[in-house]
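Hi all, long-time lurker, first post. I run a small reading group and we've been trying to get comfortable going from sequence to structure in the token notation. Rather than ask abstract questions, I figured I'd post a concrete chain and ask someone more experienced to write out its structure so we can walk through it together at our next meeting. Sequence below, copied exactly:
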Amino acid sequence: MTSIAQWPALDRTSGDLEGQVYRAMRDRILHGQMPAGQRVPSTRALAISLGVARSTVVNAYDRLKAEGYLQSTTGAATRVAAFSTPPLQGQVAAPPPNSSQTTEFATGGLFEPGVPDVSAFPHAAWARCLGARGRSLRVHDLGYGAHGGIPELRAAILDHISATRGVIARPEQVLIVPSTGAAISLLASVLLWADHPNGGFAWIEDPGYATAHALLRMAGAALVAVPCDEEGIDIARADGPPPRLIYVTPSHQYPTGVTMSLSRRLALLEFARATGAIVLEDDYDSEFQYASRPIAALQGIDRGEVVAYLGTFSKTLAPGLRVAYAVVPSRLVATVETAQRLRGAVVPVHIQAALADFIDEGRFRAHLRHMNAVYAERMAAVVSALNRHCGAWLDVGEGNGGQQLASWFRDIAVDDVAAVRSINSHGFALRAMSSLHLGPSRPGMLFGIARMEAAAANAAAERIARLLAMSAVA
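-- Answer (accepted) --
Happy to help. Here is the structure in token form:
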């Protein structure tokens, strides 16, 4: 067992003591300093040694267990978990200095996936921030200079995602864009070089996000579908030429909702480093976790700057704000900023300034806490209602996070496109799971939970059950 005396003192001035304990042990494990099977200090002993509350260490250990770094059984000591991929060697590198919808999918109906509830948008707080900034914009903010985003917003976003998602970067690596789609397009335009040996190939999750598929195709990519299972994308099962980029949703896979296992994360990072590929990590709605705290971002354990991290305020605040961001490897910043300027993919400066204040004043985090509670209640109600009324037809996902819920037909011969089209004609807006596959698929339905009031979930699920009973699915 690693001597407790070897642990560095915590930086109490920077706060987040739990995060410091978590990162210190995670990095020891990843660097091979704590091998698989090694017993870790007890929570009580480590808490006493570090001079923190035991709950701080308990919570840090819970995060490490949830992400696959530690394992424990009742009555036995907690130990370092075994990985199928060897731990990465070396230190965590600090960034270097400067440097279309298908016909079965209706919109505007019940259970529409991908649409947040904006009825709880904090209008008054946002109006104050927007009004104040609109009246006091500085002269240098009104010019052409800040194509990648104003410094205040870059710094505010980085502070937030560093604390909540474990992202490691410098503010100049954060680029402000109108949408995640804009970020995907920008990065694809930079990465998919016609004269590169692997320049035309993009590996994508299967099933996966149809909009990302379309954007990559528009950028000239030849898509290679890589199967996903309960551990996320499995690059060992990829069948195609080496890629220039790999698009993944590791924290909350779209649409299945699974979390990529630690072994798969390490394998993906090592593969990207070895082949020169860039991983596009779309962290679209991972702020919403109901069974545990959000899993740390893949970017935070990236040793070779092979991950471009994408985030958006569309799911957490409102799509109409048109604000997203990309944290890009430092060597790509200048090239991506040039592409951004040429495409005009910028966000109005008064929106950026107001959002920076909104985050810095703690209003964004307060809104997230509120909406996480709201969505957790709705997800639980939807899962319960679907299991109660539709369980004879559907295998319903656990619903541990996010704003959508996957389900699969128990009868694999069901035509899910036809079933969804029939249901959607009665005021629903479900998505057929097969429409999100490029390869072999399992039939199912994708539910959006964000706008489904908990009290209304039972009646809605009962209606769907009646429709399924009357259709050919029965």
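A couple of things your group might point at:
The longest strand covers residues 222-229.
Residues 85-103 have pLDDT under 50 and may be disordered.
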